[in-house]
Specification:
Elements lengths: L2 H10 L3 H9 L11 H10 L4 H10 L3 H10 L7 H10 L3 H12 L5 H8 L5 H17 L7 H14 L5 H17 L4 H11 L16 H10 L13
Helix pairs in contact: 1-4, 3-5, 4-5, 5-7, 7-9, 8-9, 9-11, 10-12, 11-12, 11-13
């Protein structure tokens, strides 16, 4: 399938009810309102040139297409320039915090890229940076991680989270959880940071979504016996 054909499939799969729901969660035009499960069905139909199709889909700026692109693309095959373009043009938070972060964490330069992004004055790019770091915690072996830098990032969050932009606060809190859940050596420091920042306030746009309390979430991971268990991929 070509990217044009994929877009036709996406358009046909759109739903006004799903679109309304996604708009409550921050989705912005243009998008058609396609369920993730339906996007995955479309993905299975794309047998050839998936990487190129993914890049072309993301470039459309259509939210559903950008999400599908994140599922399809191999971040290890993308250049820093391409990843930067994705971070800069992500349509809304589901794209910047998921699609972009999914592919970025697969790149060998992911850690350095993410550190650059979290310093961005653009909240969406900064959110992508923190989300990428969280995905790195979840998928990279501990021996590849810069433990001293991760400790510095926890300290930075303690100092900056209260005044950070709305979604950046959410992703910072997610990073604390990821460090505490996936890096055993840093479970205690991450839990301590979580206690210091407390219950993080994030405007969820009137939805029923809640911001997890980091120490409580980490404890649940420990109680379930999942502490330190890495994922094969961040994509879902």
């Amino acid at each position: 399938m070509t990217s044009k054909q994929v877009l036709e499939e996406i358009k046909k799969s759109g739903s006004e009810s799903i679109k309304k729901t996604l708009m409550k969660h921050g989705a912005k035009e243009p998008f058609y309102g396609v369920k993730v499960e339906d996007l995955k069905k479309i993905q299975k139909k794309i047998k050839e040139n998936q990487q190129q199709v993914a890049l072309e889909l993301f470039a459309t700026g259509i939210g559903d297409a950008q999400y599908l692109a994140g599922l399809m693309a191999h971040g290890s095959k993308m250049s820093k320039k391409e990843l930067q373009a994705w971070a800069d043009t992500a349509g809304w938070q589901m794209i910047s915090e998921y699609s972009v972060a999914w592919v970025a964490c697969e790149n060998e330069l992911a850690f350095d890229i993410a550190l650059k992004w979290i310093d961005s004055k653009k909240p969406a790019v900064a959110s992508s940076g923190w989300a990428t770091l969280s995905n790195i915690m979840a998928t990279w072996p501990d021996e590849k991680l810069d433990i001293p830098m991760l400790k510095k990032l926890l300290t930075r969050i303690e100092k900056e989270i209260e005044t950070a932009p709305n979604r950046v606060r959410y992703c910072m809190n997610g990073f604390v959880i990821a460090v505490g859940s996936y890096v055993k050596e840093l479970t205690a420091p991450a839990t301590a940071t979580g206690k210091k920042i407390g219950h993080v306030e994030v405007d969820m746009n009137g939805t029923y979504c809640k911001v997890p309390f980091a120490p409580g979430y980490i404890k649940k991971v420990i109680d379930k016996g999942y502490l330190g268990k890495k994922k094969k991929t961040a994509k879902c």
